[in-house]
Amino acid sequence: MGPAGGEARPGRFFGVYLLYCLNPRHRGRVYVGFTINPARRVQQHNAGRKKGGAWRTSGRGPWEMVLIVHGFPSAVAALRFEWAWQHPQASRRLAHVGPRLRGEASFAFHLRVLAHMLRAPPWERLPLTLRWLRADFRQDLCPPPPPHVPLAFGPLPPRAPAPRRRASPLVDTEKERDHDTEAFCTLCARVLQDEEGPLCCPHAGCSLRAHVICLAEEFLQEEPGQLLPLEGQCPGAWPGGGL
Fold it and tell me: Is the predicted pLDDT of residue 138 greater than 50, yes or no?
């Protein structure tokens, strides 16, 4: 995939990052961590343990956050990813990844582990983004990330605020309510009440509107052993449509 950026979506941010030490005395050391605020977290690491940094990074700065993996659905999912990246030899999902080789730099080893993690379950099916915060540190991963995992470059875009309903006259509110009651899921025929709106087919000729879970279940009929679909054919009227 090519560079991908775009505006941030509303919702909480969960990321797992890689720090690189720029201190000549400790140059080459790396650190893997979890954060909900990358800019604040790297400041804490460089300020020391008393300011919220980790003991492994305290007094060894400056540290640079060179890449971050984000898009995790929850803090728990991100923390599990962090633990496995920190302890690949203890993770049963990474048993196929060999230990650090003699002469292999810590940075290169962590990238090698990351490459295999993005291709291993359950992470291979998550809607993750691999973002290089420092393009000069970028290296191609082997194996490469799955096709649905985009590469992004540069700082994270500003987080979008959660959508708020605009105040409107009572008559408009009633019209909106009447309109909502007429919107039904194409797949389950129940009323659509998703605050962020239903999923729609991108083709103008298709009228499909569906709950996220309904469309996921439809796509997973061909992959009954999975929890998250990666792609699927539109079940609407549009011939050959895909999402």
Answer: yes
